[in-house]
Every structure is written in structure tokens, then in C-alpha cells.
Write a structure and sequence with these properties.
Elements (H helix, E strand, L loop, with lengths): L10 H16 L2 E6 L6 H18 L5 E2 L5 E2 L3 E6 L10 H7 L11 H10 L13 H18 L2 E6 L6 H13 L5 E7 L14 E3 L5 H10 L6 H11 L3 H9 L3 H5 L10 H14 L3 H12 L5 H10 L8 H5 L3 E3 L4 E3 L4 H8 L2 H13 L3 H10 L6 H16 L3 H14 L5 H18 L4 H11 L3 H18 L2 H15 L4 H17 L3 H14 L5 H17 L2 H14 L8 H12 L4 H17 L6 H14 L3 H17 L3 H18 L2 H15 L7 H15 L3 H18 L10 H10 L3 H18 L2 H14 L3 H15 L5 H17 L3 H18 L2 H13 L11 H10 L3 H11 L4 H8 L3 H15 L4 H10 L5
Parallel strand pairs: 1-6, 1-7, 4-5, 5-6
Antiparallel strand pairs: 2-3, 8-9
Helix pairs in contact: 1-2, 4-5, 5-6, 8-9, 11-15, 12-15, 12-16, 13-16, 16-17, 17-18, 18-19, 19-20, 20-21, 20-22, 21-22, 22-23, 22-24, 23-24, 24-25, 24-26, 25-26, 26-27, 26-28, 28-29, 28-30, 29-30, 30-31, 30-32, 31-32, 31-44, 32-33, 32-34, 33-34, 34-35, 35-36, 36-37, 36-38, 37-38, 38-39, 38-40, ...
Amino acid sequence: MHGGTGIVGRERERRLMDDLLVAGGAGGASLLLWGEPGIGKTALLDYAAEQAERAERHRDPVGTAGPHGTTLSRRTVLRARGIETETVLPFATLGDLLMPSSHLFRELPGPQRTALESCLALGGDAADTPSNPYAACMGALNVLAALGDEQPVVVLVDDLHWVDPSSQRVLLFIARRLSSERVALALGSREDHGESGTRRSIPAVQVGGLPPDDCAALLREADRQVTPAVLGELVRISGGNPLALREIAAGLTPGQARGEDPLLDPPSLGHHLERAWATRIDDLPETARRALVVLAASRSKAAGPLRKALEAAGLSLDALSPAEVDGLITATSDGLDFHHPVLRPLVLGRAPLAHRFAAYTALAEVNTGPLHAWYRASASAGPDEEAAAALAEAAQEARRRSAFAESALAWRRAADLTPAPDPAARAARLHRAASDALLSGSPSGPQWCEEALRISPDPAMRADIQGLLGRMCTWRGETARAYGLLLDAADAVRGHDPARASMLLAEATAAARLDGHVPAAVRVAEQSLSLASPTGPERWYSLTVLGAALVMAGRTADGRRMLESADAHGTGDPVRDQQVYAIAGQAWSRVEEFVRGRTLLNTAVESARRHSAVGVLGFTLAVRGELETRIGQWASARGDLTESLRWAEELGQLTCVSYTLYCLARLEALRGNRVECEDHVARARRECGAYGIGCQEYHLTAVLGLSALAHGDYDTAADQLEQTLALAEEQGIGNPEVVPFAADLAEAHLRAGDPVRAAEVVTWLEERARETGLASAEAAAARCRGLLASTPEEAEAHFERGLAAHQRTTGPFDWARTLLCEAEVLRRHRRPAAARAPLASALACFERLGAAPWARRAASELAAAGGTLASRASSSSSDLAGALDQLTPQEFQVSRAVARGLNNTEAAASLFVSRKTVEAHLTRVYRKLHVRSRTDLTRLLTAADLVD
């Protein structure tokens, strides 16, 4: 019944904690425990700490056996706990965890050390720009990995919901990436951070109530005797919550314990606990209650600062003695703290306003810097410009440390304290709060922008706010709203600041494209270019987005001219302007300039990795993954798209989540994995559909149609792809290669027995091919004409023209499809011998790519044509493709980084993982690919054209 550590029951949860410790010692693992207050999360973290410390005390070189048969070696235990009043202190919890190991900071790569030390206020000049938060995240991960090199590390963080947001970001970043670092990370929280929204983070377990037998044992341990009937009522009322069970039982009269008097059934568990504790608080002397308010308001539990604050309030530490005797507070190693975290907000909530203000005023007197600012703000009953100005300074300090969430909160509170006669200053502070909220990933930014818009009297400021809100809406998937906001912002400044209006209109172009209004995107991009100065940086941006919009509309010649002009004008910074690089790379790929597009994308990706600039990395990786899918580098595409989805989820970029899920679905459709394809589509619709991303259904219906076609479900394919065609025409998408669906639609109709409709679709595709001059569209149309041909001579002419068009572009999958269709027609016209060569070539290509259903179809046709499958020599390229397919997406990304010449430390920084993770992945890569050295790996990937 007992866990050997004072914990009652919890067999399943203790086993999970034991497994976590073992997994952490062997490689790396994380776990989130979540549940209501008092349910036992802290007890489980205490259990883990005692197990780790028990192993440490034994000092057994081979470890010590845990209670469930696990073997635990010596471990370093790091503990921290979130405190509600510390949520505005940047990196407070991270500092508690890492400062004892600050000697390891000097071993970090330069950018990581600088960022981490800046975040922890250990270095950096007041004039420095904000440090890179993701470099700091990597630095923290590598510090823990270095500790793990010495002996396994156990990191235990309680009350994650009260940990400051910047530390939360770092902890969740680390939790997602633990795999080879010998670090076990356990988090306790009231919220399920593992499943909320699109941010699927880490393994999460809900800690529920104790069963009746364990509840009985808990009461026996507390020396509370009740009858079985009363026990059943207590279990029902408490829900098995240990804290509630003890508190309710402690308040029973003897008659209630014996079942002679009825139990009071409270309206809620929380109400019962509050009532029980409130009674004990109210029974304290007034000086004790006032001293408790100071302790509750304080962001430090250390005895020294607390004594100073109490003295400033006319009190002393002795005033807290009655609360300590009553068990409301307990002595800690360095001061005093509440018996349970729930007591802190209860004390503050019940205290008279005068007591709260007196406590905050006293704390402000004995503190400086950001703490002084926050205490003073809490002591302000209304507008107070001096308090607001102090908070503004605190916000700027937090921003310099990349604590954008804390900076946003400080700006928000400063806005609240700004006197009413100055709406411009209040709006400016709200604008800055919203801007930092965007950088932190907080969902509050749009609300603060709207509040600022309602009070801002300055048209220029309103335009800035609308532009920021439009940017937020674009990434959040609210593309129609983003488009309107950005247009309004541009109109507001067009007359006096055309360059700014040009940039806003360029941003609106992206929103229009995503919303499925390509003609509007072209029109707005033209307006953007008309406002751009001849030599200003906005001209390069305007030329690029106009070129991309024209290409999407099918005006490829005009689009090429704009893209060429953008290149001639000069490129921007690949870090700052990463999104523009991605747009340009995507546009060049859509006019079949794959090398040019890939070069731009590679530059943007590698610059982002080098500078830890991940804000747009997810989108850039998705664009590169789509391009790699098109040119037949499917292993590379899978690696890029998997990483893209992770970043899009972490940053809450629903637009990018939708796009990446489409790209992954298309890749799985090509490979023949119909279930995985449909899962990606279903997830995109479930998580992003409600936001009205206009282009989403155009992409998703196309990929469902392709998947159905691959599996011979021709009616379904035709139905889905007809929807795609209707959306393409409705949205003004004239480029048939934005999503190459038309040939799939024609083939689906033909194989479903409707050659008339198939011919109509082919005519549409031929018109698009002539207008755009795209070889891939010409080849696809010719392939379909070959299938429709009534004579072998006519078919042969069409296929010959299609194969000639394939030579002018890069697309091995489509080339193999043309060969397969040609062979099928030849065999249908009783020319099996002529069909064997194209079938063999098509089969080899499909196998190399991993396009399973297409390979099966080619193999079946080859057998029917009299070919011998066993006689086909296994090509080295097919073998290599099969070997690469064994790699996980992250193993592939590690391989590619190493093949580019990066050492393990550089590869780790580039991929935002630890050096230990790179080493572990590289070991598995060597084994799977049968190579022995980095040189062998580089040679192999270079041969496959996979080295950027």
C-alpha cells in the first residue's frame, strides 16, 4: 500500500516515475503529471526525488534496485517550483535550476552561452538588442546534457502553471528534445500542457483520485477513524483527492465520524477546502493575518528579504509564529513557505484591500529594479504614471533578456496604470505589449491590439497596430481578417508614408493568397510595387510577392520578369527576410526553376539555423519539403516536413500547420500510405478548418483524390478532384503546377468510365500548359491524350511528345507515370514486347522513390507483358533509396547536417538538439546505411544529390 516514501497507493504512477528515472538514465525522457490541486502531484515528484537520492546514498557503482525491480544509478537531482507571485520575473525558475551549474556555461558554443547568460542576467550591456531565446533554450539543454555526461540528471519542476512563461518555454523546449542526454524531466501542473490546442508537447498523465481502499489507508495514517459508511461519503465528496480527504476528515465532529450526524455536502470541493482554511486563517491574531499577507504577496520566501518587508510594514517574523503552529506555513531550508500553494491566493483573496496595499507598499520599499516596479504597481489603486514608467523600464529590461512574455505583461500593466488623459501613451504601451506577446507566442496579442485600436487617436499608430494585428491573424489562420486589416493599415499611411504602405500591402498579398483570392493578391501586389521607392528595400519585397502572385495566377512570363527584377534589385538579409526568401523559392519552383528555388531556400534555412531564427523556419522548411517531393527527393522531404510541423506546432502557426500537413499528406499519397494521408488531412481540417484558411480545401481535396487514384478508387478520386478544379477556377489559380491535380482528374474519369469528361479536363490542362509554358503541364496533358487515343499510332505520338517535355523539367515520379501509361496502352494494343522496356524503367523509378502502389501496378503490367521480375538487376540507386527510407526524419536531418561538413556540436546547434542526440542518431545512421565514417556518409548522400 505504501510506497516507502510516505506516499499511499499510486502503484501505476510510481511505476511510471520509476520508468522515467530508468529511461532518463539510459537516454532521456520527460513526463508531465497533471491534475487538480491536492491530488498528489507533489508527492509523486517527492517520490522520484527520494528514489534518486536513495540511489545516490547507496553509492553502488552498478546501481540500486527500486521498489518495482528497476535499477537506479547515482543521480543529480535538480528541483524547482513555480510560485504564483514570481510569474512576472523573467527566467526565475530556470535560474533556480541552472545557476548551481553555471560553471558549465563556459563550455557552451558562443551564441548559446551569450544568450543563456543574458537571459539569466549574468552578462550583456543595457544597450544590447534582445538575445536569441532559442539559442538560450539550446544552451539550457546542453548544460543539462553536460551534467548528464557526469551522471544521470533528474529535473523535477512542480506547479508548472505558476512558472514564469520564459522558463516554461525553455522547459517545454527541453522536454520535447530529450532523447540521448541522460536527463529525466518530470513536470507537475494543474493544466495538461501535453494536449492543449495544437501544441502537442510531451507525454502527459492525469493524476486522478485515490480508490476507496487507499483513501482508508490515508485516513488510518492520519489517525482519523471513521465508519465504512462515512468513508464512502468522504470518498464521494473528495473525489479521492488526498488533500481534500485529510482536510475534510480533520474537520469532522465525533458524531459525524461515527456516522451519527450528517456530513455537510459542500457545493464544490474547492469551496470546502477554502472554507476549512479560511476558518483557520480568520482565527489567527490580526498581526499574524497581516504578516501572512506580506508572505503571500512576496516573490521571495527567503527569511532575510521577508524580515525586511515585515519590518517595513511595522511587523516582525515573530508575527508569523501562530500561523506556523497552526500548520498553515512551514519552515524551509532558507525561510518560510505555505503548507500548500493554494493557500497563497486564498490569503491574498481574503485580505482586506488596506492590508494588501500595505504589504505591497512595504515590499516596494525594500526592493529595487523590476521587483520594485511590480510591487509598486500592485500597490496602486488607480492610474499612476510613475508606477507605469517603472513598469515600462521593467518591460524593456525583460525584453533585453528575451523574456518576451514577461515584457508583454509589464507593458500591459503599464498601460492599465497610464492616466486616462493620455490615450496615445496608453495605446502605445498596449501596442508594445501586443508586439511582445506575438514574439512570446501568447494568445493575448490580438485582444490587446483591438483595445489599443479603440483608444488610439493617431492614424500612424493605428496603422502600426492594424499591421501587427494583421500579421498575427495571418499566422493564426484568420487570413480573411488579416487581409482586411493590412489593407486598412496601408490606406491609413499611403498619403504620407508610401514606403510603409508598400510593405503593408506586400504583407496583404500573402494573406490574400492564403485566403484563396489570387486575383486580389495580384492587384494588391501591383499597388505595393507602385508605392515602393526605386531603391528602397520595400521594392525587392514588392517585386518578389508580385512575381509569386503572378506565377500562381498562371501569368508565368510576367511572374518570371518580376522575380528576375527582384534578383537584379538585390536580395535582403536571409535571416531578417526569411519569409521573402521562402516566397521567392516557392515561386521559382512553380516555374520549374528548381535549382534556383532550392538555392534560395537552402540559404534561408541554413541562415535561420546558424542564427537560431526559427520564427519562419517552419514555413521555409515546408516549402523546401514540397520542392523536394516534386523533384523526387522524398527522404529529404520527409525530414524537412516533419521538422516543419514541429516548429509550426511549437509556435502556434496554424497557417503553417495546415500547409505542412498538406505537404505530408501528398508525400504519403505518393508513397501509397492512404491511412497516413487521410490522417494528415483529417487533422488539418480538425485543427485549422474552423479558421477559414481559404486555400486549404483546394490542397486537401487534391491530395485525397491522388491517394484514391493510387489505390484504384476512381469514383472517389474523380469526386475529390472535381472539387479541386472548381476551387482552382473560383480562386483564380491558373498555374496547374501549384497543385498538379488536373492529370489525376482526367485519369480518374477515364478509368471510372467517363472519357468525355476526361477529355474536357485534358483540354483545360492543355490550355493552362500553353498559357504558362510549363513543361510538366505539357507532359501531363500529353500523357492523358495518350490514354485517350483510339489508335496505337496516335497514342505513341502523344507519349513521345510527353516524354520529350519531361526532358525539359525535373520530376521522376511523373516521368515514370508517363512510361507506365505508355506501356499500358501498348499492351492494350497487343504490343507487349514494346511495353517491357518502359515498364522496367517505370518500375525501377517507382521502387527507388518508394511509390508502393505505382510499383505494384508496374510490376503487374510487366508480368502481364511477359517480363521477368527476377531478371531485373537491383540498381544501386534503388538500394540507396531503400536504405535512406529506414532513417527516421531526424536521423536524416542529422545525416544531411554532417554531410554538409558540420561537426557534432555545430550539427546540434543547427538542428536545435543536444550534441548527445546527434551522436546517438549518427551511430544509428552508420548502422542502417552500413557506413563507417563521416566521409563515407558524405560520399553516399552526395551521390544521391542530397547534400545542399
